[in-house]
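Limitations

Structures in this collection are predictions, not experimental determinations, and the ligand pose is part of the prediction. Treat each record accordingly. The example that follows, with zinc ion as the small molecule, is included so readers can see exactly what is and is not provided: the inputs are given verbatim, and the output is the predicted complex.
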Amino acid sequence: MITTTSSSSGHCLCRNVRYRFEGPRTWACFCHCEECRRNCAAPIVAYIGVPLDGFRWQVNEQEGTEPAFYPSSQGVKRFFCNQCGTPMAFQAEHYPGEIHLYAATLENPQDFEPSFHVHYREKLSWLHLDDSLHRYPGSAPADPDQRI
Ligand SMILES: [Zn+2]
Ligand SMILES: [Zn+2]
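Predicted complex:
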């Protein structure tokens, strides 16, 4: 559990899509799944989980407007900026009450500390990582208290 409670913000490459949130980041991880990899065209994706309470989008200066999204599977929205194409976030009906932000879109991505890996069985063989974080072969347990 990450206990940062200050407000944070992020934006896409062209700054048309922005977000802000208050309150705790409930988790932070790396995802190696193929869908995230293709969505971000990156070998590995870093996420933070944030409660939807206290989270706000801003698109084209319009407060509270959702950005464009691609429904990559049933009940899933993968948000992106429709001007510059930056992937922004993942939201799914099977994770109610939270949004998963692509951490590289944070105003200050240094202000982020991943604590585990998910879908590690899909990791690219040429990607070498030397951290000692826990590696879940698939998803992490839904209950945060069950996570390492
Ligand atoms: Zn943009
Ligand atoms: Zn993924």
